[in-house]
Amino acid sequence: MALYVSREPFGAGQRAEPRSPIADLHAHLGTLKVPGKQMSALSWEGGGLKIALAVDSFIYFANIRPDYKWGYCSNTVVYAYTRPDRPEYCVIFWDTKNNEKYVKYVKSLISITTCGDFCILATKADENHPQEENEMGTFGATFVLVLCNSIGTPLDPKYIDIVPLFVAMTKTHVIAASKEAFYTWQYRVAKKLTALEINQITRSRKEGRERIYHVDDTPSGSVDGVLDYSKAIQGTRDPICAITASDKTLIVGRESGTIQRYSLPNVGLIQKYSLNCRAYQLSLNCNSSRLAIIDISGVLTFFDLDARVTDSTGQQVIGELLKLERKDVWDMKWAKDNPDLFAMMEKTRMYVFRNLDPEEPIQTSGYICNFEDLEIKSVLLDEILKNPEHPNKDYIINFEIRSLRDSRALIEKVGIEDASQFIEDNPHPRLWRLLAEAALQNLDLHTAEQAFVRCKDYQGIKFVKRLGHLQSESMKQAEVAAYFGRFEEAERMYLDMDRRDLAIGLRLKLGDWFRVLQLLKTGSGDADDSLLEQAHNAIGDYFADRQKWLNAVQYYVQGRNQERLAECYYMLEDYEGLENLANSLPENHKLLPEIAQMFVRVGMCEQAVTAFLKCNQPKAAVDTCVHLNQWNKAVELAKNHSMKEIGSLLARYASHLLEKNKTLDAIELYRKANYFYDAAKLMFK
């Protein structure tokens, strides 16, 4: 039985070849081999993913595993689905750690590919927004690779003129392939580059970061790959059917069973291998030494890329097909930190293999997100896509592999010594860390230090060294409790030892100022005044950050924080409190000008003038009076402080009075200021 899925043709302008109607409108997803002679009937489960097949005198049941558009990056599950009310794909970026989701709508989405903290959305270009030639490097680019971060923010789009049927991604490169050619884009520069390599990248930025190669070419790894799309339109008798990549290797699978191995970042053809199957999915292990192949019939095989063997003719060849073969496989994932570990999905069971030896299966239908630190994270996409707008954290499942479970059981039931021997035989940083933590709990510092060394945990080594210098067992236990995050227990132990200072120090490190204040007040001795002030101010900051100004005032008063008090009074519109604060400050205090400006902003002239005069700024006081139209006060201040600007000030005030037809008031102003000539001129007008 062959399974097909409907698919729109990839746009006009492509060369049409004589094909059947099914081939034109559908894509072949997979083939299910069923024993028997004749299939007489088939029925789908209503709204589900199961089918029933009538073959001869038997009924067979099968599960269909859809090839969803999805990926996993930086604790985020990215998946796409279609809605009946919109023509675009709805792409959800679901942060499983914080249970937040970000929604993007993408037209003509082809695939989703993820790696590290980034995601590539391969789409068809919007014909309504043609790009310029200097942006694309070619006219008529019809597809886009959009680089996004883990919340779906587009970072960098690349327009290409080949159909991205297959997309692979590494920490530095994106590789997109059609059936005839593949395109490479260095979207990030590797951290460990020599100065010479950086200069080369700078000189040939466009050519160095984007290149295209025909699958029949044999690039040498030099700069022979350029962004020339004329290569991509040339046909081939052996099309590409799958690709995969690691940081240093690119693998291209062809329909004939040929596997081509290229180097990265400088693309050069290293080796060609020949297999007896057509690859549907390829995957490299973490050190690029082994290749996993799932063919279109769901058969999983493995190929050692570096093994040297002698063939039937007696010649030495590179590459060996390993003996392991599994059927009905629809997903697999290599461990990120161990080249011999991988997990695979076979029907509705997950198997974990170490050195090609399987562990007992786990019943699940989840798609594997990540395999790292001896833990497998999988997501139940079938369940999520039943209600894609409301993903549930229950659909994210974590599995521990057997060596981690066995190590934990040995430590708990047998003892550290036997567990240490088991971990020695099955080494992994996660297991050594588990042993180190168990040894710390038992205060076995020698074993803990050795285990921390084996898992390269420098902070753990320093912690064990510090414990070794402590004399009291109770003190060591309290430090260990704090190390493991049991802070309440650690604090209680410190207090039992009459070491309130250490309990306060612990809470200081945690930033728990409420508890610091509580400990300072409950102590029998005199509390440190500076620490008390610091605690009051920190709690005041806590309330001020949440705009709870009234609560903040109480703590700032006790913390004697006049700057933040002024801010709180101003936000509360408590101008009486602000005035009292200004009166309590000594002369020429640095806060007085700021308080004066607060009064100016709300039109309180008298209080502002008082504050300015207290910090010896009569000019600012006069300017404030002028700004607030308190001319009498301004003239009085200018006269009292013998300011040179009194003449111009009188003229401005007189003009102000004359505009209001208050001529007699203007004459009186000049007379009081002893400007008799100006007063006389106004009288005789």
Automatic annotation (TrEMBL):
Q: Does the UniProt entry include the keyword Kinase?
A: no
The record ties this protein, via InterPro entries, to:
Beta-prop_IFT121_2nd, Ift122/121, TPR_IFT80_172_dom, TPR_WDR35, WD40_repeat_dom_sf
* Domain IFT80/172/WDR35 TPR stretches: 431-521
What GO terms in the biological process aspect are recorded for it? intraciliary retrograde transport; non-motile cilium assembly; protein localization to cilium
Q: Which UniProt keywords apply?
A: Repeat, WD repeat
Q: Which Gene3D superfamilies does the entry link to?
A: 1.25.40.470
User: Single GO cellular component annotation?
Assistant: non-motile cilium
Indicate the segments forming the IFT121 second beta-propeller domain, all copies. 70-400
Q: Membrane-crossing residues? A: none
Q: What is its main location?
A: cytoplasm
Where is this gene product found? Cytoplasm, Cytoskeleton, Cilium basal body
What Pfam families is this protein classified in?
Answer: Beta-prop_WDR35_2nd, TPR_IFT80_172, TPR_WDR35
PANTHER family, per the entry: LD29485P (PTHR12764:SF5), WD REPEAT DOMAIN-RELATED (PTHR12764)
Q: What is this protein called?
A: WD repeat-containing protein 35
Upper taxonomic lineage: Eukaryota, Metazoa, Chordata, Craniata, Vertebrata
**Which gene is transcribed and translated to give this protein?**
LOC102733052
